[in-house]
User: Fold this.
Amino acid sequence: MTQLANANASAVAEQLRSWNAQAVAQVIEYRGETTIVVPPELLLATAKQCKENPALNFNLLSDTTCVDRFPVEPRFELNYSLVSIPRRDRVRLRTSVSAQHPVVDSLMPVWPGANWLEREIFDLFGIRFEGHTDLRRILLPEGFEGFPLRRDFPTEGKR
Amino acid sequence: MATVETAVGTTKAMVLNMGPQHPSTHGVLRVMLELDGENVVKAVPDIGYLHTGIEKSCEDKTYSQSITLTDRIDYLNPLGNNLVYCLAVEKLLGLEVPKRAQYIRVMMVELQRISSHLVWLGTHAIDMGAMSVLLYCFREREEILKIFERFTGQRMMTSYIRIGGVALQPPAGWRDQVKRFLDMMPARIDEYEALLTENRIWQGRLKGVGYLSAETLISLSTTGPGLRAAGVPFDNRKMFPYSSYEEFDFNVPTRTESDCYARYLVRVAEMRESLKIIRQAMDKITDDGAIKTEAPGIVPPEREKMKTEMEALIYHFKIFTEGFSPPPGEAFAVVESPRGELGCFVASNGSPKPLRVHFRAPSFINLQALPFMVQGQLIADTVACIGTIDIVLGEVDR
Assistant:
């Protein structure tokens, strides 16, 4: 599927490993992009480290994406695309949560811009973000039932 | 309902609803304004009125079928949307696009940037009361749309940029048409500046309005002219070049005041820089050459070949009935749209239809900054701030 990095992994992964080896569960280098797989309980701490460590300095959270890997468990894969404007670097943090407990820490304390990005994922996938200050639907109407972008929700809708 | 202490006693703040039908919200945007007289205490945007489930629809279509959907996300920048999606899919496939096709892509996307900024300028000016500027900008935009029609057959939803290259060869006589546009345009931009830049009313409406510091903007994930007007020279064309932009010579305009007036100056300067890029692209595009990469089974063969050669016919049939399957994996491509960093995340599970397509829409993310921008300002400044963020609701809602 994707090539596992060898010992010469990217510098970002090395920095994170030296801070906390548990945080880097896997490093994926594919098509010129670096993805660091992080266990969900260490996500917030890793994100803080990515922003505050001057050797990493990822000051911009570009995007959050959720991929529903149904029926593979853990089902929901969250991808956070980070940009370091001063260092001209990009990296992706990835974590996965299960269908039974789709909860993960909100990254709003690190990047306030995660607000609407996480609301969108909550709206369309139903993943709860602990510590989000205003977690409610953003694109769909308030009373909407269901989470449309999940793979088991039909494209045509349910009416 | 918030209560506000005043010298006389306590008053209740009034909640006023702005939109979703409103000439100044630039689309179906609803903003709930909590007002203390004319001042905004709190602004809460409510979006989703244009949500059509584009990302979900892409999961039911093959990779090439989704290109027509991408046109409609940011409907003032269809070529940019096509480009970011095609770059993501080409990354997944590991496809190299021929240089000539890359130069054509750059030229079309820069023309699109000018046309998008013209719409922005015209609508922003009319919101502020400078009504004549709207029609002047649309007059020039007509010329760009005529160029697109000549090249692609469509004025707006062109779907011209395809996986592996572009759809059609440049038409006969295109150089004269583009050159006429390039020769005419600088004087027209001077006209807009003559009407607006030193205008006391324009400056009075925009200077000091909607200020946010660079740190706040970065923490709110704002990108594009809004961030460049705060002094941060972040432009994907320079910082993470794509589609041969590293071969072009242009500047990235920045300002430091980070108010509506600075954003206006940045966008006008960007229009001039785009003209430079188009001129260089025109010189680089040779009269003959490939417009698509050779990738049998992925990029459809030429129509003439398809009608005469058996293998080409079989490839054509397979591509349009079953589609092609990229290897499993994910790719994230970014371009610099007129509104900021436009990204496309595509995940493949080895089937002809994508597992997930997600668009990082700059308008959606930049709009988060609106409540912070309008805090404590007048309602009239709210209109200026919505205009200065430059949102396109198709992109906000998808």
User: Anything to note?
Assistant: Residues 114-125 of chain A form the longest helix (12 residues). Residues 2 and 30 of chain A are 6 Å apart (CA to CA). Chain A has three helices and seven strands.
